[in-house]
Amino acid sequence: METDIPLRDIMVREVVKGDRELNVMEAAKLMKKYDVDSIVVLNNGEPVGIVTQGDIISELVSKDITPSTVKLKDIMTTPLITASSNDRLSDIAKKMATERIRKIPVIEDEKLVGIVADVDILAVSSEMNSILAELIEMNVEREILGTGSEGEGMGQGICEKCASFSNDLVMKGGLMVCETCKEEMEMETGPE
Fold first, then answer.
1. How confident is the model at residue 186, as a pLDDT?
2. What pLDDT is stored for residue 16 in this prediction?
3. Are 73 and 120 found together in one domain?
4. Domain boundary residue among 82, 108, 124?
5. CA 146, CA 149: separation in Å to the nearest integer?
6. Structural domain tally of the chain?
7. Can you list the residues of the chain whose pLDDT is less than 50?
8. By the number of CB atoms within 10 A of the CB, which of 98, 100, 101, 146 ranks highest?
9. φ and ψ at 100, to 5 degrees?
10. CA–CA dist 162, 93 (Å, integer)
11. In which domain, by residue range, is 99 found?
């Protein structure tokens, strides 16, 4: 995973938020409307907590409590763990793992400017892994294709047939082989 990515580059900027006095039914309607699984709780415009679908299920649904009778302030997770938009992705991923949280609101100049979820981090990590795999594949292809025809010298390394070290490996039959194994392979199949 790229460790120098600042959160501002991956955070979701539209954050669903609600006042701490908002009842859970109205908050759930907002969450459904915007297709999110959490709402950041505000007190006089300042973020003070977070309520997730999990909180609603564990605090209300499982106890058969009517959502319209409970306010966000009653079930929110607080104190709110936040990050800065300049924080590095790797640091925040570690913080989220340590704190066992899946979402972290992003604060800039004491204002809520975004939110980062575990899935955002996974998406970036997955994308970086794909790019890295492509770069490795291109490098391997370049090494193989850049050597000319089969049988031409490739340099030193371990022979893929006899596993001995050689200063002069060559490509033969799709394998990197020493000169001795190359000659043996040519005797078995004839020169190409």
1. 87
2. 96
3. yes
4. 124
5. 9
6. 2
7. 1-2, 146-151
8. 101
9. 60, 50
10. 45
11. 7-124
In a domain, 130, yes or no: no
Distance of alpha carbon 115 from alpha carbon 31, whole angstroms: 14
C-alpha 86 chain-centroid distance? 18
How far, in Å, CA of 174 to CA of 150, rounded?
8
Query: Across the chain, what does the average pLDDT equal?
Result: 83
Query: What's the rounded Cα separation, in Å, for the pair 50 and 77?
Result: 5
- SS3 letters across 84-99: ECCCEHHHHHHHHHHH
Q: Between the CA of residue 86 and those of 6, 82, 106, what are the distances in Å? A: 5, 12, 9
Task: Count CB-CB contacts under 10 A for residue 70.
Answer: 17
Helix, strand, or coil (residue 66)? coil
Q: Mind listing the pLDDT tens digit for each residue in 112-133?
A: 999 998 888 877 766 666 666 6
Determine, yes or no, domain membership for 141: no
pTM recorded for the entire structure: 0.63
